[in-house]
Amino acid sequence: MSSPASALELAAAGAVDLVAAGSLEMGAHRPQDAVAIAALLPAGTPVYVNHLPRHRLAQSLEAIAALRAAGLEPVPHIAARRIAGRGELEAFLRAAGVRKALVLGGDEPAALGPYADGAALIRTGLLEESGVREIGLPGYPEGHPRIPQMALEQAFSEKLALAAGHGLSAYVVTQFCFAPARILEYCASLARYCGSRIADCNVVGVHLFSFGGVTASAAWMNRIIATRGSG
To answer: Do residues 18 and 205 touch, judged by C-beta distance below 8 A?
Structure first.
């Protein structure tokens, strides 16, 4: 039986591993942050580039290129309801040249173009044709203010099936949440989608929403990772 001290040490080591395998989000309009955060993070750390209502997809290309040049892995947000048409999506994916993307619906009252949700983006076939191999799907530990829970679950199941049909691996990125217990409950609920793969279908790492403070967030990750092996 483990002592309280050893249990705490194991928990601390697990937290370090989650941060070391984690990711964070940066603003599409801040490509200059790439060099600063690359100095603080392990090479290849995934950095998500947001797609806000006021920005077109192409406006994130500079940040994507800066992250790649700095040795990090750029992962763009692609918000379906903010895309004007197939041409915009195709041109962006061709120019971005990314392996992973976070596929979102986008909280817009009406779609700007033909894509009403993330499933519609997957159906285009453009993701895999452009070299994308993995897609992140949004998870909602605290639910969604405008979408019923059953609709969320149905949409999630549909997107998993579509991803598999298009040869895309899928994983979940949860929305920011201030209730740790809800995150744990949500992650536990995902085991029903894993079938016989429960052993390797688990939480991979933490994802930080930096809210404009990406360098400070990277510095925090750096401090946590630096404690590995220091105990």
So the answer is: yes
